[in-house]
Design brief:
By secondary structure, the protein is mainly β. It has a domain of 96 residues: OB fold (Dihydrolipoamide Acetyltransferase, E2P). It is built from 3 helices and 7 strands, in the order E-H-H-E-E-E-E-H-E-E. It has a 5-stranded antiparallel β-sheet. It is globular and about 55 Å long. The protein starts with 6 loop residues before the first strand and ends with a strand. 15% of the residues are buried.
């Protein structure tokens, strides 16, 4: 098993159907006419995303300073994203049941914002269902 840095995917490189890509249709909806001419109106209608880490093979990892956790409501389900400051800039790691659990444990044991964190993909675990669960290791200092 090789131990190597995981690939970072820029939002524009994501070939799979992405949450951000699904918003494109929503932006085609016009503003309500009574709000179109309002001066000083602040509007947020796009998703500000960091490049995301893609773990393809067991042993791949990412290292950075923990910058925080974001919770996104996607189709009625809460999905966590973990932000890390790396030498190459800010990146995000999508949460999963196992990774969320590992990072929750780490935070209960003292990990917090600005700690150095390593997230390593250990491979898939057979769950007996259609989708295998991704297993992770988390280390911090």
């Amino acid at each position: 098993m090789a131990v190597k840095l995981a690939q970072v995917i820029q939002p524009s490189q994501d070939n799979e159907a992405s949450f951000a890509g699904e918003l494109d249709g929503a932006l085609a909806v016009p503003m309500p006419p009574e709000l179109e001419k309002v001066q000083g109106l602040n509007i947020i209608d796009s998703l500000d995303t960091n490049p995301t880490v893609h773990f393809a093979e067991p042993g791949e990892y990412v290292v950075g300073r923990y910058a925080g956790t974001r919770e996104l409501n996607i189709s009625g389900r809460i999905q966590k994203m973990y932000d890390l400051r790396t030498p190459g800039g800010m990146v995000s790691v999508w949460g999963s049941k196992i990774l969320d659990s590992r990072l929750d444990q780490a935070m209960r044991k003292g990990m917090s914002v600005n700690h150095s964190v390593m997230i390593q993909y250990l491979g898939d675990i057979d769950t007996g269902k259609d989708n295998a669960a991704k297993n992770f290791r988390v280390a911090w200092k």
